[in-house]
Amino acid sequence: MNLRQLAIALGGEVVGRQVLAPGPGHSPCDRSMSISLNGSDYVVHSHCGDDWKACRDHVNEKIGIPQWRPVSNKSFPNTSMNKPGLVAARPENAEYVYDTAEGKPYLKVSRFYDKDGKKKFAQLRWDGSGWIPGTPSGPKIPYKLPELMACRGSPVLIVEGEKDADRLVSLGWNATTNAGGSSGWHVDLDKYFAGCDVYLIPDNDESGEKHIARVHEGIKDIAASVRVVRLPGLREKGDVSDWLDDGHTPDELIDQINRAKPYGAKDRNIVSSADFLDGFIPPDYCIDGLIQRRFCYSLTAPTGHGKTAVALLLAASKALGLKIGNHEVDPGRVLYFVGENPDDVRMRWIALSEKMRFDARTIDVHFRPGTCKLSKLTIEIRREVEALGGVSLIIVDTSAAYSEAEEENDNVQAGNHARLMRSMVTLPGEPCVVVLCHPTKSATAENLLPRGGGAFLAEVDGNLTCWREDTLVTMHWQGKFRGSDFDPLKFDLKTVTTDRIKDSKGRPIPSVVAKTLSDGEVRRVEEKKRSDEDSALLAIKDHGPVSFAGLARALGWISAKGENRSKAQRCIERLQKHGLVSSDRNGSSLTKKGESQVERIRSNQ
Description:
By secondary structure, the protein is α/β, with parallel strands linked by helices. Helices cover about 30% and strands about 25% of the residues. The strands form 7 sheets. A 9-stranded mixed β-sheet has the order 19-18-20-21-17-22-23-24-25. Strands 5, 6, 7, 8 and 9 form a 5-stranded antiparallel β-sheet that branches.
């Protein structure tokens, strides 16, 4: 069965080299389960934490394979595990199969315990029909070879032991090891890591250091890079599985991998000025004078204040190389994570393509719809971004949709989430990352900080903000901004319809898009707003206390659905803010300051 057939059977879709499909018991639009082919078998993963066996049984049912059942020990051939004095029925026993690049069984490593409880290992080879004692006569191969080949070019983690490799693969990493433990690395294995960025994670003992020394010696001249990941707080003789079992998180592992140093580099607390500056690359702008590559920003705004509309406009402008206000933009590839209401974003994107006159099917903007645990998709995302040729800008819509924190105001969890967002600046292309955020509760125009408090804000390079008044959205920054200050940007929000978006009865469905305003357009918008406010003051003076609907009728603000009460309400709220109008149950009336303003208006007229 190929990927297309698999997608049809599961009611999903092919994305890259995998199928995204509904998990067991999920809605048809769900895409929380990924399935990739592995030779004649497949690998299934749930991005929302469903039990792996339930997922596998679900897939088997859909494609007509009987449910998996454990095989009795009696069916195995007579191996060294059955010799007198060896115990083969302990919970800690495990078997690890090494498949060839074609997915065929080649070697099996069995872990078991002797009568004294001492751990032992036995190797078996496949003879075409079953496992027999002894090692294969052919060349040595690394563990998880089919997966290693499928992720060619992606970073590879090399550990000492199959258990650790399995643990890292379950977290989304491309991980492998060799048979035979710390002394088992063989020259046959070197070629599989040509051109790869390799990360060595040693066990915390002498054999662990000897293992990574052997690996480095074999691949140092053919790998793109070889770095060593040191795990802080790793217990003596411990491994990466122990480190994770001790309470360390996948986010912490990502952080340590990002901090990894080349093999042989000395860990020093104090470095020279030359070492401090070595390898520094000056920042480069993603949007000139606004946001920089390799930087991570939050974009904070309340619901309804235009952050998604502005983000989609930024994405299209970056891909097309169009100016944002007075800011020049070099064209570049964009990746957009759609975690909230993908259908709404699809409608906005279609409407924006018509307004900006670009082909929504060919523009160099790529989407990742649906929520997921990004910490578990690190390798897959890196591989797909690399296959695209890298990206210049990543937009995450929204932070809350991808947060793995159980409590958003917990400082540690908020900081871990922010670091996970920041880690995407290391993806191929060294992109700028913009994370759309909801503000703290009861936010005002003067208090637009992202949820997560200081712990989140401390991990980003700047907090961009959007605030809407009527149809005008102002974009600036608050709280923190690394880089040159910039004049506030103004966007106009328009409610639009298109013939491509209609309901089942043929009625157009409105959508909202943003448009950058020039300085002249901003002046005209402000003048129109001031003119509307003057007209409202005169109408209140002439008609006495008025309701929103009454004011709209008096000024002829009539839409297809009747009086434009929302426009009247926004106008009254602005006048209240300036102290020109007060409101009670009878409607809106002029204050003394408002009366004086009316006299000046009539005098000017």
